[in-house]
Design brief:
The protein is α+β, with helices and mostly antiparallel strands and about 800 residues long. The chain has a domain of about 180 residues: 3-Layer(aba) Sandwich (Collagenase (Catalytic Domain)). The chain contains 13 helices and 49 strands. It has a seven-stranded mixed β-sheet, covered by helices on one side. Helix 2 crosses helix 4.
Length: about 800
């Protein structure tokens, strides 16, 4: 936490080089007073900090002893400001000084008092628009006032408030002299002036610890900041102390300020010192007069000092020590100020906290672990027990040690100061660790050695949370920790599991599942921040993007062959899932999937080929399971993968498409992607006439029907067939493959209803029926007619048809039959 802000020079410092000003934080509105004060010697700094954000600055600690006594001679001056005149009631001003004197006389056991020795009225050049330090400097300069022991200057000015709405400001000099400036007397004047004389006597403000987390207490980091970043110090936050927020009453100053300022007789506070055990104390009303009515103790670990006082509606506490402000108040010294530690440190609204004391049955715990239990309260006293963390932990540790024979005899005393308020004790056979959250737990043997290798409580596992439990499968044992578990078996040794990997292991049955026991600790530093851990039956891999999943068996072996997480598949994204068709299993990865069946083994699919396989139903579709991994390096950068029912080919130009059955057989007979057809460009489509199917390729199409089987068409012949409506036209389905090597480099292909011939000189034309028969009788393209040069042309009226050839024409009619011209 941060310490008190470094004093900043005020205008007064120009006149008095030794003067240092510390202005208080304004915490009240224009209708409520706030109080400012200045120390002419730097105020001391306590162990705890000040308002959040202040820098840590060391200063010489100053305190006061019981020898400080005397009657402070007060020069009372009623000042009319140059720009504002008003009646200043002298009686009210003197009454306020009398109230202050009575209060501080009570606090000092009669040693300190304030007496007005001179009253004067003056006109000043100071104005109501000046800042109050400048206003006071002007007036003090006009008066020629300088500080000296047991003297004070009190000035009332003719304005209802000072600058910034302040209802008072004070300056201190060595704790027995100072200056106070006050506005016109009003409702809070008595309390404000009494508070200001507290500053003259060397005291700072009474504050409260505020934590968004609700923490009862908080440690301080080496840089002066709070260990709990939600905590800060609320100045004026203690309304059960005159030096806190101003109110009409004047509650007793806290025991911390009492001790710091050297007030009282000196026998009011019992100094219990550093408590290493447990001790009971009886508190009496702090605002009363009994000796030994409060207690202070030192936390043995942090070295911080805590004060315990009982606030009851007695004497100066009559008005404020009521309801939940009647009970045990716990405070610490904060330099020249104080810090109340609340039952609920969450920020409260308004100025006055309704719950500042601890009630019977409640327990306060210092940040280092010492406990203060409020055993009971009456109308005149409270019983409290202070028990150090050493005692608390020691009892719990000894109890566990008695129940754990394997520990043997103690090898050390109880030591505390571990993280999270932990303590431990070493034994011949192990150790027992304790924290407020986990209790006391023993660690022994191989499990303890494994925990030690991971940094004990400072490592990822944290503290043990349960005792070692044996009787697991294979004679194994385990022990739980805050961050995970350590399992041991005779065959594997002891290894920890934690975090997401442990959760994944648990989801597959821990040591009773396929993975069985861990064989090593988690190893991190993999690709993309990943980690893995090996087990008897496989491995669990984790990454921030994928989570943690196990791999085993054939699927794991395939993943390994592809480079684990560094390969194409990346990390697993799901667990192995079985129950697929024919007893198969699969597992998803970032870059694809691995499927396994007893007939095919485990094979990965990814990318475009996997997407195509998915589109045809994965293993439930025609393709079945993959039978080999994807193979690349095909023509034009293509890849292929075989499946039980066919193959999927991919190329950058075409994407991925499956081929199977008769169409695949025909494509294969034509050299697949290396042949004329190239890669498939569409999926097989069925539902054609007579139950046919087809598939497109870069260089053509393959059609199949039950009657004809599968044949490819391409080029000019395919174009002509297309012009005749493919399989729906006169030609029907192809019944043979394209055959070339005819006369003059020609080619032909047979169809159900005829033939298409092609030559470079004529193009491609179909022949069928009587004209085709006549052409055939003349020797087809080898005869005198040569190749056809046109399509058959028929008269829609008389039905006569004709078709031209290179060297003639064939005409046909029902009446004459076929006639060749010329």
């Amino acid at each position: 936490m941060t310490v008190q802000p470094t004093p900043s020079p005020s205008a007064t410092a120009k006149d008095s080089p030794s003067l240092t000003t510390v202005e208080s934080l304004p915490v009240e509105g224009s209708d409520e007073p706030f109080i400012a004060h200045t120390f002419e010697n730097p105020p001391p700094v306590g162990k705890k900090g000040a308002p959040a954000g202040a820098s840590a600055t060391a200063r010489t600690t100053e305190s006061y002893s019981l020898t400080r006594s005397g009657d402070i001679k007060v020069r009372l001056v009623l000042v009319q400001l140059a720009d504002r005149k008003a009646t200043i009631p002298q009686a009210a001003a003197q009454a306020a000084i009398t109230t202050s004197s009575n209060y501080w006389k009570t606090m000092s056991n009669g040693r300190l008092s304030m007496t007005v020795t001179k009253v004067e009225s003056r006109d000043s050049k100071a104005t109501s628009t000046q800042r109050y330090p400048d206003m006071m400097n002007t007036i003090a300069g006009e008066l020629g006032w300088t500080p000296s022991p047991n003297t004070a200057l009190v000035v009332f000015v003719s304005t209802p408030t000072l600058s910034d709405g302040a209802y008072g400001a004070g300056w201190s000099y060595q704790g027995t002299s100072g200056r106070v400036i006050m506005p016109l007397p009003a409702t809070l004047t008595n309390s404000v002036l009494t508070h200001e004389f507290g500053h003259v006597l060397g005291l700072m403000h009474a504050n409260s610890l505020q934590c968004g987390s609700g923490a009862q207490d908080v440690a301080t980091n080496s840089d002066g900041t709070f260990a709990d970043s939600s905590c800060y110090i609320r100045e004026y936050g203690d309304s059960l102390d005159l030096m806190g927020i101003s109110q009409r009453s004047q509650p007793a100053i806290s025991s911390t300020l009492w001790a710091y300022g050297g007030f009282g007789r000196g026998d009011e506070i019992v100094d219990a010192g550093s408590l290493n055990g447990a001790k009971k104390f009886t508190l009496k009303a702090w605002a009363g007069t009994e000796a030994n009515r409060a207690v202070k103790f030192t936390d043995p670990l942090s070295g911080e000092v805590y004060f315990l006082e009982l606030r009851l509606p007695v004497s100066y506490d009559t008005t404020e020590a009521v309801d939940l402000n009647s009970g045990v108040k716990i405070v610490q010294q904060l330099g020249a100020g104080s810090l109340v530690l609340l039952p609920d440190s969450k920020p409260f609204s308004g100025y006055y906290n309704p719950r500042q004391t601890w009630q019977a049955g409640e327990t306060f715990t210092t940040h280092a672990g010492t406990r203060v239990r409020i055993d009971g309260t009456t109308s005149s006293s409270a019983s409290v027990t202070v028990e150090s963390i050493l005692a608390i932990a020691g009892k719990a540790i000894d109890s566990v040690a008695l129940a754990t024979p394997a520990l043997g005899s103690p090898a050390s005393s109880v030591a505390c100061g571990l993280r999270s308020g932990g303590c431990y004790r070493s034994f011949q056979g192990g150790s027992v660790h304790w924290t407020p959250g986990t209790g006391a737990v023993a660690t022994v043997g191989a499990i303890r050695a494994s925990w030690a290798a991971l940094g004990y409580e400072n490592g990822k596992l944290g503290y043990p949370t349960g005792k070692e439990t044996c009787g697991l499968v294979g004679g194994g044992c385990y022990q739980t920790f805050q961050g995970g578990t350590i399992h041991w078996s005779s065959g594997t040794g002891a290894f920890a599991t934690l975090g997401a990997i442990r959760t994944a292991w648990g989801s597959v049955g821990y040591e009773n599942g396929k993975l069985r026991y861990p064989l090593a600790n988690e190893v991190c530093g993999l690709l993309n921040g990943g980690c893995y851990q090996t087990f008897q039956g496989g491995t669990i891999h984790w990454s921030p993007a994928s989570g943690a999943f196990a791999t085993w068996g054939a699927i794991r072996a395939t993943w390994a062959s592809l480079g684990y997480e560094k390969g194409r598949l990346g990390y697993p994204t799901g667990k192995e899932t079985c129950g697929l068709v024919n007893g198969g299993c699969y597992q998803t990865f970032q870059g694809g999937t691995i499927h396994w069946s007893s007939a095919t083994g485990a094979v990965a699919t990814w990318g475009g080929i996997r997407a195509t396989w998915a589109s045809v139903g994965y293993e439930k579709g025609k393709l079945g399971y993959p039978t080999a991994k994807e193979t690349c390096g095909l023509v034009n950068g293509g890849c292929s993968q075989t499946f039980q029912g066919g193959t999927i080919h991919w190329s950058p130009a075409t994407g991925a498409f499956a081929t199977w059955g008769g169409i695949r057989g025909t494509w294969g007979s034509l050299s697949a992607e290396k042949g004329k057809l190239g890669y498939p460009t569409g999926k097989e489509t069925c539902g054609l006439i007579n139950g046919g199917c087809y598939q497109t390729f870069q260089g053509g199409t393959i059609h199949w029907s039950p009657a004809t089987r599968a044949y490819a068409t391409w080029g000019g012949i395919r174009a002509t067939w297309a012009s005749l409506s493919f399989e729906k036209g006169k030609l029907g389905y192809p019944t043979g493959k394209e055959t070339c090597g005819l006369i003059n480099g020609g080619c032909y292909q047979k169809f159900q209803g005829g033939t298409i011939h092609w030559s470079s000189a004529t193009g491609a034309y179909a022949t069928w029926g009587p004209i085709r028969t006549t052409w055939g009788s003349l020797g087809y393209e080898r005869g005198r007619l040569g190749y056809p040069t046109s399509a058959e042309n028929c008269d829609p009226v008389n039905g006569a048809c004709s078709q031209r050839f290179q060297n003639g024409t064939i005409m046909w009619s029902a009446a004459q039959g076929s006639v060749v011209l010329p």
